[in-house]
Every structure is written in structure tokens, then in C-alpha cells.
Design a protein that fits this description.
By secondary structure, this protein is an alpha+beta fold. 28% of the residues lie in helices and 51% in strands. Helix 1 packs antiparallel against helix 2 (70-80). The chain is globular. 18% of the residues are buried.
């Protein structure tokens, strides 16, 4: 397994409970496919976007540190791409 960093932006209009449920759902997408979520970081939190995305001007930033195989990332990518609550996401492989 390799180390990855996944950053995604959730819609700002989600309330606290819905945001936590969405974050749990996305983490479960990874873990049920064999990945291990090592850290969830919400330090950026709610921020203004540099440019509007789907008419949204604010977003809630979340960063995950994970150990995963390609199959888990492929499934995450496939599902998140069609999730209306996720504005953008990025998966980066960490250098060893």
C-alpha cells in the first residue's frame, strides 16, 4: 500500500450534522475497499473559493491521509465524481 493525501471541498450550505455524515460516508468508501484512513484534518474549514464552483462561493475543506491500493482510490474517484455535495477533490501520492 502507498500513502496518499486526499483533499476535497464540501458544499458550504451543509449543516454540521450533514457535513459529518458526508465526511463519514467518504471515509467509509475508502475503508470498505481496503484503505486505512490515518488522519482527517479539517484545519482549513470553511473558506472562500478562489472562483465560483457550481455557483458556490464558499466551501468546506477536508484533508485525508490514507494508506491505500489503486482499487480503493479508483472506487473513491468513481463515486465522489457523482456526489453533489463534493465540489472538488484531489488525490496526491506522497513521496517516499
Amino acid at each position: 500500500m502507498r500513502k496518499y493525501e486526499i483533499m476535497y471541498i464540501l458544499r458550504a450550505n451543509l449543516d454540521e450534522e450533514a457535513r459529518k455524515a458526508q465526511m463519514e460516508k467518504l471515509a467509509n468508501l475508502l475503508t470498505k475497499n481496503g484503505a486505512k484512513v490515518e488522519k482527517t484534518d479539517e484545519a482549513f474549514g470553511l473558506r472562500d473559493l478562489a472562483y465560483p464552483i457550481n455557483d458556490e462561493v464558499k466551501g468546506y475543506y477536508v484533508v485525508l491521509k490514507v494508506l491505500a491500493e489503486q482499487t480503493a482510490l479508483y472506487e473513491f474517484n468513481r463515486k465522489v465524481r457523482h456526489d453533489a455535495n463534493v465540489l472538488r477533490f484531489l488525490i496526491l501520492a506522497e513521496q517516499e
